[in-house]
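PROTOCOL LOG
Step 1. Enter all chains and additional molecules of the complex.
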Amino acid sequence: MSEPTDLVRIEDVEKDYRRGGEEIPVLAGVNMTIPQGDFLALMGPSGSGKSTLLNIIGGLDRPTNGAIYVAGERVDTLSDRELAAWRARHIGFVFQFYNLMPTLTAEKNVDLPLLLTPLSRSERQKHVAAALAVTGLSHRAKHFPRQMSGGEQQRVGIARAIVTDPTLLLCDEPTGDLDRKSGDEILSLLQALNRDHGKTIVMVTHDPHASHRATRTLHLNKGLLEDHPME
Amino acid sequence: MRIHWLNWLRQVVLVTGFSLRTIPERKGSVAASVFGIAGVVAVFVGVLSIDQGFRQALIGSASANIAMVLRAGADTEMTSGLGREDVRVVANAPGLARGTNGPQASPELFVIINLPKRSTGTDANVAFRGVEPPAFEVHRQLHILHGRNFRRGHNELIVGRGAAAQFAGLDVGSTLEIGRNHWEIVGLFEANGGMEESEIWTDAAVLQPAYRRGTSYQSVLLTLQTPEAFDAGKDFLTSDPRLNVKVVRQADYFAEQSQVMTRLILGLGISITSLMGVGAVFGALNTMYTAVSARAREMATLRALGFGGAAVMLSVLLESLALSWAGGALGGGLAYLAFDGYRTATLNFQSFSQVAFAFTVTPSLLVEGVLWASVMGFIGGLFPALRAMRLPIATALRAS
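Step 2. Run joint prediction.
Step 3. Record the structure below.
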């Protein structure tokens, strides 16, 4: 039994990819827990499996073996349709390249996850305004992504990720496409979300500078968590 | 359950909306696809409008209460022959409508003459019909447009407007020399776009000696009091030992007459448009594969946010269908503008005479064109849609 405060529990997770008839192991039996309110940085060299692990936690990919529990619910056995609905309810994603819809304004981008909820238009507008206020982008609500800097676009991405008040915020290299100054601002925002709003965050990064902003860092190497990571 | 479906439909509408908004960014491939489908539909509608026009010319004038009497075994007027005594017996059949000349029974003589076509100057066959007064009651839709009707016993004739448009020397007031006879053209008639408009008419009593036909005719047209009187009249005539005839409804006769041409046009039209359709489907496939490829990351993002894979798939299919409908509407519109009402003539394989007709783009033909476009759009969108649904989200999220 895991501790009641554990939000995520990962048990013996393995993941193999098949390439040209050859099985390539990416995760080789990962066990870990993520407590509620944690800000965890996942680090490791390219190909270590950190993004794969993040995708599996977020229900974007499935493990070859093992089990994933989020908020007490086993998610790796859900059907594709159930998994999509589960993602909408529980997960907020922040992507390296922001992944905004270029034809939608900032507020419409932030509104996207809410369209899957039964909220009314006015309720959605309130949520969108609040999320944009938290990320400091209220004044850019009517702007399109192409009219914004990379840092601003990533703030829109974060606003979109938090607008449904998800259980878990998953960030895949959130500063990987930004300059140092913008990256620092994004990391400060994530820290504030964790510290002031109690958001549980898992962030994949290869940048030690970014990992220092997290409350905890785990290292993956060749598909396994390292006991004694080299900082 | 209802909320689930509403939510799903909402997703489909939203994702389709996103797709359609990106069309300006892909206008090159989208235009190629739309114009490709438009071309196929324009040809499809254009070719089938020939069939529509031809059939309308043949069948348009047919009436449900007109029966046609031919010699038994004859498939066409060309191969039929009835004597004056036959005509007299036929006119006594029960159930015939009565006109000013007694029973509405119109004995008709049918010969083929050669005249030069206006367009090429080469000779082509024209139907030359000899009729008696009841003909103008049986062929009720016939009206003199210009000039007057022929006088009985005179070498005068009236010309259908289709024949006048297609053949040289058929203007009212001119004289036509056929063999050793001279005929004065005294009138131009129309017949509601029907078969008669491709013919030349005169007095049967004048035409019979001119072509050494004695007192024979080819057919007798009967106006029935009601369409239901057909069976009784047919039984009466076919069981009379003095007669050796067959009785058919005029509509059935014309329908059979048009079959060869219809089959030819449909075969040709469907073959051509199927071949073109294959090309258009590849165009649509290319457009939608490009769209899926260009929008792989967007689609994966939507799915990561919780939008369903089936909604994404359906949105790709709907976009493809929307493009095909645009192409179908464009092609149908072009076909309508280019072909509808265009008058020409072709050979009726049964009578070996020219039938004048107008290309006719009907609403149902336009609907068929859009349906055909939908088939192309569906096939062109299906495989890209399946690819969109099967894209691994994690991989597609990092697509450039």
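Step 4. Note key features.
The mean pLDDT of chain A is 90.
Strands of chain A lie at 6-19, 22-35, 39-43, 65-70, 73-74, 91-94, 168-172, 200-204, 216-221, 224-225.
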